[in-house]
User: Fold this.
Amino acid sequence: MKDENVKNHYLWDGSGEPDPETQRLEKLLGRYRHREGAEPDWSGVQPPLVAMPRLPRQSRGWRWLAAAAVLVALVGAGVWLTMRPEESWWQVVHVEGAPQMGDEAVDSTAALAPDQWLETDSNSRARLESLIGAVDIEPNTRLRLLRAGVTEHRLEMQRGTIHATIYAPARQFFVETPSATAVDLGCMYTLEVADSGAGRVEVTAGWVAFEMNGRESFIPAGAQCETRPEVGPGTPCFTDASENFKGALVRLDFEKLAPAERDGALKTILVEARPRDAFSLWHLLNRVDPVERPQVYDRLAQLAPPPDGVTRDAVLRGDRQALDLWWDALGHGDASWFRFWKRDLPQQTP
Amino acid sequence: MATLDNAIPQVSPARLGRGVLSDAPPAEAGADAGLVEAARAGDRAAFGRLYHRYAGVIHGLLLARVPRTEVDDLVQDVFLRAMGQLHTLRDAAFFPGWLCAIARNRANDFYRRRRPADELPEALPGKSTAEDAEARAALEAIRSLPEAYRETLILRLVEGLTGQEIAGRTGLTPGSVRVNLHRGMKLLREKLGRTES
Assistant:
């Protein structure tokens, strides 16, 4: 055991007593190490991040020539953007087992074509890679690429689990599931879909919007949201909320409850809510029946008092401006941010 | 304006290839984010510093995937691509994972574009010793391992990075790096026909 620990320390950071075998491999393989040399000459590169230098004063003819060259370059770039093969956008990388792409096993890497299904069995894992990010595919997952364009990448996921890490600007990466579409708003998240079509998203960084038929939830880092076929996304909540709180939200969102049961579930939610759960109650204002809304308002106002200009009446009648102001006060960012990408958040039912 | 008692937990922004967060030293991550911001604003010197800092990692990731003779050119290509696309990176703190993704994509493109008839000699011309042959065999053994182990072992044994440095510059968690190193080393010993002492 002591010997194993010694090896582990050395393998980790070279500290402790050297492990002879690791040392030998280091010596052997060190010959392939990257050689620190002169930095490449970047001067010939004109990245779009740098302002183009002004052209020196030249004769009119040269200016026309320069303008024509720019025009040709722009047209060329446009043609390239529209004509380049979409297959080049997502590569399937074999990670473990025997992932299947259509009828073929993926043993190293392959391009995923639109409409082509990718499936992992209980022993397989794969990864999708593209310049906008990566999607790790867990065992027992079935998905396909619907679209890989310049401004939109869209997957359809029938079942399984994926971990998405997306670098692209918000609202360029979508995953359609049987019960909701996950919209990347700049984030890293795990999405699970059961055979029944029910789903769950848990966000690690950034935000995800979960939406279906006009019903939507905004889920920040540290939060989760469930979704069900024919209902859509439920009320999001932080993963560290109490089990009672989370269970009552699921019952209220998705189960057909008798009035007394429904009342009980709502009471559990309101009692168990912490100040941090104000974010869930804000979503709940749009989900509960009008007669239940005052209870939600009162508890939310207790946990996170409404800012100046937000009145009880305005919130209860679903005034968008009042709801936005209150959202802003919750400390999760400015509501105009998601208004910008969505432009039209659904009004609550009267 | 009302505020909540409990703020949303601030997650480390380092992005990972496998959907987990790194707990890379914040000072290091912050310094890199500053360089990325400067490079994005057109500061070539800042981009040069990023190059020196990450060239070894990119070299290692490529060495895990493409023939040795191609690696140096591809390293430069990865940085040229990164420079041209730096404006698309939404958050500077995601730079390590983003850059690694470009490198993996570039390696995939390399195989996609290569003509089947192209010969890719692994052995460089010149005098070859028994030790050279052993080194080639060890490298090939690592390259035959599953990808996660392959990359981590090459960064440790070839590029000489510590586990913590691998985590900080690839976006993996230290825990994942530790697991990959130990499991990878075990498999490598088996491949090389050596038993645990």
Q: What stands out?
A: Residues 26-114+133-191 of chain B form a domain with the Rna Polymerase Sigma Factor; Chain: A fold (CATH 1.10.1740.10). Residues 125 and 179 of chain B are 37 Å apart (CA to CA). Confidence is low (pLDDT under 50) at residues 1-27 of chain B.
